[in-house]
Each structure stands twice: as C-alpha cells, then as structure tokens.
Amino acid sequence: AGQFGSHLPASSLTGTGLLPQELEDKIRYVGNTSKTGAYLALLSSSKRTEMETLVHEMEYLELSQMPNYQEIFLESLQFPQ
User: Fold this and answer.
1) Is residue 81 domain-resident?
2) Can you tell me the distance from the alpha carbon of 7 to that of 29, in angstroms, rounded to the nearest whole number?
3) The pTM of the whole model exceeds 0.70
C-alpha cells in the first residue's frame, strides 16, 4: 500500500526474502490506504465508530524492550543467497 509500495515489484519483495515466494502471484498494489481511511473517518459516522472501537482492541508492543530484540533483528536481516 502507499506510494512507496507502488514502486516495489513483487519479485523484489519475494526475491529478497521479505515475503515468501509462494505469495508473489498474490501481491497487488491497493493504493494510498491511509488516505482512504481518513476519508472514511471524516465522511462516515458508522466507519468512524468502527475505527474508534478497533482502537481499543489494539495492543501496542514495544519491540525494543523485548529481550535480545536487537540480536534477533540483526539476524533477520540476512537475505537468502
């Protein structure tokens, strides 16, 4: 999604290992979804209520506070050969 995502070919995403190879034919650009969400929140009271409810169901997870996060992150940057 978004402008950045529109410039990433599916083969690049799967070729670097960012996404599994099996998903390459399922990847598609969906546009600027954050802007669409903002429009929905402004123009639809039912969608705005739905978003407000969803906010309370979300959980924030501070990855940098997890044990060994930095080591796990660095190991995960290894791209396949």
Assistant:
1) no
2) 9
3) no
